[in-house]
Amino acid sequence: MRIALLLLVALFASGQTAPSDDYQISGVVIDNLSKRPLNRVLVQLAKAGKNTGEVTVFTGPAGLFRFTHVPRGRYRLLAAKRGGMLEAFQAYDGYSTAIVVDGVQKTDSLVFPIRTPASISGTVIDENGDPVRNASIDLFEESVVRGEIETRMRAGGFSTNSSGQFHVGHLEPGRYYLAVQATPWFSEGMNSGNEVVYPITFYGDTTDAKSAHAIPLAEGGSANIQITLHTAPGIRVKLPPGEMAEIGIYLPGPGGTRIPLNTSVTGGQAGSNGEFINLELTNLPAGRYEVTNRGEFGTHGQIVDLQNGSTLPPENNGYATISGKLSFDGPQPKSAIMIALNPGLNAKIAADGTFKFDKAAPGKYTLTIRESAFLITAVEAQGAHLVNDSLDVPADAAVELTIRAVAAESLASVEGIAMQGKGAVGGALVLLLPKDAAKKRFIRRDQSDSDGSFHLTNIMPGEYTLVAIDDGRDLAYKTESVMKPYLPGAVSLKIPPEKSAPLLVAVQGRK
Amino acid sequence: MPLQRLTLFFACICSLFAQTGNQPLFNVTGTVVNSVSGAPIRGALVRLSSTELHTTTADSSGHFEFAGLPSGVAYVSAVRPGFDSRDRRQEQKQSQIKIGPAMDPLLVKLNPLAKISGRVVDEDGEPIEAVNVQSFREQIFNGYMQWRPGNIAETDEAGFFTLEDLAAGSYQLRTGQKRLYTVPPTRSEAARYIYPPVFYPNAANRDAAQPIAVSPGADLKIDFALHSIRAARVSFVTVPPYEHVRAIIGDEEGAPLADQLPLTDPVTGAYVLAAVPPGNWKLIVHDRLSGRSNHQETPWGELPLEVGHADIENLQVPMAKLPDIQVLTTGPPAGSNNIQLISAKGRIYAATPTPNGEMWLHGVEPGSYRVNAGFGFYCFASITSESSDLLREELLVTPGSNPAPIQLVPGDNCASLKLLPSANSDVIVTSTNPPGFALQLLQVSESGYTVTGLHEGEYHVYAFDDATALEYANPAALRGFKSQTVQLETGQTATVQLEVNHRPAP
C-alpha cells in the first residue's frame, strides 16, 4: 500500500474558528544539492517549545506540503526523508528557524532544503597489496562547533570488510582525519603470539598524527581513499602483579585528540595471594605511549617509552590535586551543578560551592561547567596555567580554582529583528560580541526566526557589538580576526539597553 | 581476530630426506591452492603439528616447506582469510600425514568463501538505508535439517549490502522490518509505515522463499524491492501486570519476525507495538529482566495474533511462570551435564544442580522435547515423567503447566557397541523404538570406537564416508542406506562390522 501522497490536515481545530486565525503553512521540500523536489517526505509542524501535538503530512511527487487552518503563533517545522532522521527547518549547530504565523509574514511558499550528507569510502591494504579485513577505522572530524574549530573523534565502530573496504556515511561538511588499527591476521597463528603488529596508521600513510592528511568534504561530497599498513615488530610489556585489562594505552591523534589502542592482555597465572601475575600487554609496537592505570580510564596518564620486555610502571606518578570554589554574585541556583575537567574528571559541586579532585594526572584539561541558569563571569587558577578554560596542570601541583558566576535573574536579555532593507530576514546568525574580545564566554548567539525576530538571554551587562550574518553557519565567530570584517556594519550597544524597543540589526552577507 | 580453519585435501604424501646423528630427518613440502580455481594461494599460514607445532607461510607460488622433521604422524592445516572449511570433520579426517622417506609434495586445497551482495530499494527505486539482511543456511542441527541464522548485513545509504564469508550451501535471505521514518513511535501516524520483512525474492514467509545455492567462492548479486505498508498498532497488557517485558512477534512456529522492547503508551499505560504487519503471528511476551537465567522466575505469555489493517487495542496476555522441572535420580547422581532437553527447533536445556544437590531444568519454554541422558559413563534403566516413558516419547511442556519431575533410574549394567567400519567414516547410531531417540553422530576411524552407556534395546547403525548435510534424525533420510541392526541386552557389548555407505557430496 502506498502512503497517501498528501494529507491535508486541519490543524489545532478545536476553538479555532476565527477567520483571522485561519492561515496556512505550505511549501516544497527539496534536495539541497540537486534542488529536485523530494517525494514522500514526512513534514511535521508543532508549536514552538512544545514536544507534543505535532501534525504530520507527507509530500507528494512535486515535494509539496501544506498545513491548513493554522492559528497565529510560532511553530517548529521539521522534515524527514524516508529512512532519515527528522531535521528542523534551517537547522545548524543546535539552532533552527521557527516559522512565525502573524498575518504579515508569508508562510505559503516555504522552501525546505534537506541537506545531502557526505561520505568517505576507502580500502585498507597491507604492504603486499592484500586487503586488510576487520581493521578498525577511527574517524576525526574537524569542524566549527559553537563558533570554534574543534577536532573530535567520532563514535561509530567502523571496520573493513573482507575486501579491506569501509564506508562512513552521514558526514557533515568539514575536514576529516582517519586512523586505522588492525591486527595482522596471521599474527595470531604464529608460534608465540603477536610478534608482528600494524602500528596505528593515519590517512597519508603515516604513523604520526601531525603528518596525517586531511580529507575535506563539502555537502554531499564523497572521498575515496586508500591506506597502506606496514607490519612492525610487536612487543610484550609486563604488567605489574594484580593489574588486569583495564589499563588504557593512548597515542596522540589529530587536533589534540587521543586514540585508545586496541591492545591485548595475554598469559597470566594466579599468584600466591590469588592475584594475577605474569600478565603481558601485547599487540602494540615499541613506542612512546600515554598509559592510564586501572580505574582511571579516560583520564590523563603517564608518558612511557615501551620496549619489548618493559615493565609497566605500577602507579601513575606526580598526581596533582585540584580543588576550588564556585561563588555566585547574587542568589545561587538550587539545581545541582557539575564541573568537568576533560579528559576524565567529573564532580558535583557541593552546596557550599566547593569541589575537589584528589588524583589529577599532570596534563592539559578543559574546564566545563554547564551553565543552565547562570553565567560564569571569571575563572582564576593558582598552581596551574589557565588560558581560555584550558588548564595546564603540572606534576605534584596543588591547584586552586576560583570561579565566579552570576545567576540568570541578574542578567539581561535582548530582543530584536534581523532586517535586510525593509524586510525581515529569517535564518540569520545573530551574535552579541563583547567589546572586550577576550571575554569569549560572554558571547551570545541566536538564529532569527522567519519574521526576523531573535532573543538573546543571560547577558552580562556591559559594552557589546550586535552582528547579523546571512548564511553564517560554520563561522568561527569566537576568533577575533574572523569577525573583524563584520564589525563596521554592526550595532554598538550597552547592556542593558536604554530603550526597551526591539533592536533592528542589518543582516550582512557572508564575508 | 579469530582465524578460520580451512579444509585440507591431500593428493599425495611425500618427502625429502636428511639425517642428523642417528635420527633421519625429513622435509615436508607442498603447495596451497584454491580448490575451485586451482590458483596458488600466496601468504597462507601453514601449520604442521607433530611432537611440536611448526608454522610457515606459503610463498608467492603457494609453496611451503618444513625442514628437518623426524618421522611420524603429523597434522597439517592451512589458513588464509577468505577461505574456509566445508566441513570441520572433513578436515580432521584428511589432514593426517605420515612423515617419512619417499614423500611426495602435499597439495593443500582451500575452499574459497562466497559472498552475496545486492541492493535494497523501495517501490520508487529509492535506496533504503539501515535495513538488516539476514542470511539463513540450511544445516543439520541435532540431526534435523534447519534453516540456521547466519551473517547479518546492513544496507548503507545507497541501499547496498554485502554478506561475506559464506560457506557453500543453500541459503535464504530475509530483510528485517524497517520503519520508513525515524520518529517517536507510540502514537505517531508516521511510525506505522514500514517495509515488512520479506524473504527473497518477495515472500512473506519461509515456505514461499526461494533458496539460493551458494557454491565455493561464488559472488552473487541479490536485490530486493520492498513495498511499504501501513501496519497495525497492537497494544497489550499483561495479566498480572509486569514491568519491562519483552515482546516477540513470531510466525506460527515461533521463529521471531521481530523481537522488541514494546513502548509504554503514556496515556493508557499499555504496552505498544507500533507497527505489526498483517498476518497470523504468535505474540510471545516474557520478562526481559529475568534473563532466563537459573533460579529466577521467568514469566511467559503467548497468544495467537491475527493482524489485519485495523489496530488491535488492549490485548490481555495471561502470564504464567515458565516451569522448572526437577530431575530425580535414584542411586548415584548422574552429573550436571548429562541430562538435557532438546527440541527440534534447537533449544537445549541442561539440568543444573542447586546448592543443596537437587537437579533442575529451569524456565522451560512450551514445546516438545527429547530427553538426552545416559550416554558416556551412565545409562538409565528408565527415564519417566509420571506415566510418560521418556526413553520412547517426547516430553510435552504446555504453557502454564506444572510438569512432574523427571525420574531417572540408573541402569545397573550398561550395554556397549563396538563400531568397526571398513574405513574412516561418520557413524550414526539410532534406536529403533521409536526412531529418532538415542541419536549419535560419531567420527570413527577404521581402528574402531566403542560407544558405552547404552540401555537395552534395538539399535540401527550406519556408516557413511561423509554424513555432511544428512538429516540423520529423520528416518526417511536414512532409508535405503546399508545398516546393521543390533539387539542389545543389559550389560552386553556387541561388535558391529560396518560397510561404509557412499554419499555424493551435497
Summarize this, please?
The complex is a heterodimer of chains A (511) and B (506). With 511 residues, chain A is mostly beta strands.
Describe the SSE topology.
The complex is a heterodimer of chains A (about 500) and B (about 500).
Chain A: E1 9-10, E2 23-31, E3 42-47, E4 55-58, E5 64-70, E6 73-80, E7 87-88, E8 99-101, E9 110-114, E10 118-126, E11 136-145, E12 148-159, E13 165-171, E14 174-181, E15 196-197, E16 201-202, E17 215-217, E18 222-229, E19 232-233, E20 237-238, E21 248-252, E22 258-260, E23 264-270, E24 276-282, E25 287-292, E26 302-306, E27 320-329, E28 338-342, E29 345-348, E30 354-360, E31 363-369, E32 374-382, E33 385-387, E34 390-393, E35 398-407, E36 412-420, E37 423-424, E38 429-434, E39 444-447, E40 453-459, E41 462-469, H1 480-483, E42 491-495, E43 503-508
Parallel strand pairs in A: 1-5, 2-9, 10-18, 27-35, 36-43, 41-43
Antiparallel strand pairs in A: 2-5, 3-4, 3-6, 6-7, 6-8, 10-13, 11-12, 11-14, 14-16, 14-17, 15-19, 20-24, 21-22, 21-25, 23-24, 25-26, 27-30, 28-29, 28-31, 31-34, 32-35, 33-34, 36-37, 36-40, 38-39, 38-41, 41-42
Chain B: E1 16-20, E2 23-34, E3 45-49, E4 53-57, E5 63-70, E6 72-79, E7 83-84, H1 88-94, E8 96-99, E9 106-112, E10 114-121, E11 132-141, E12 144-154, E13 160-166, E14 169-175, E15 178-179, E16 193-195, E17 198-199, E18 212-214, E19 219-221, E20 224-225, E21 229-230, E22 232-239, E23 245-250, E24 256-260, E25 263-264, E26 271-276, E27 279-287, E28 299-307, E29 312-318, E30 320-321, E31 325-329, E32 339-342, E33 348-350, E34 352-353, E35 359-361, E36 367-373, E37 380-385, E38 388-389, E39 395-397, E40 406-410, E41 415-421, E42 425-431, E43 440-444, E44 449-454, E45 457-464, H2 475-478, E46 483-488, E47 493-498, E48 500-501
Parallel strand pairs in B: 2-9, 10-19, 10-20, 22-29, 31-40, 41-47, 45-48
Antiparallel strand pairs in B: 1-2, 2-5, 3-4, 3-6, 6-8, 7-9, 10-13, 11-12, 11-14, 14-17, 14-18, 15-16, 16-21, 22-26, 23-24, 23-27, 25-26, 27-28, 28-30, 31-35, 32-33, 32-36, 34-35, 36-39, 37-38, 37-40, 41-44, 42-43, 42-45, 45-46
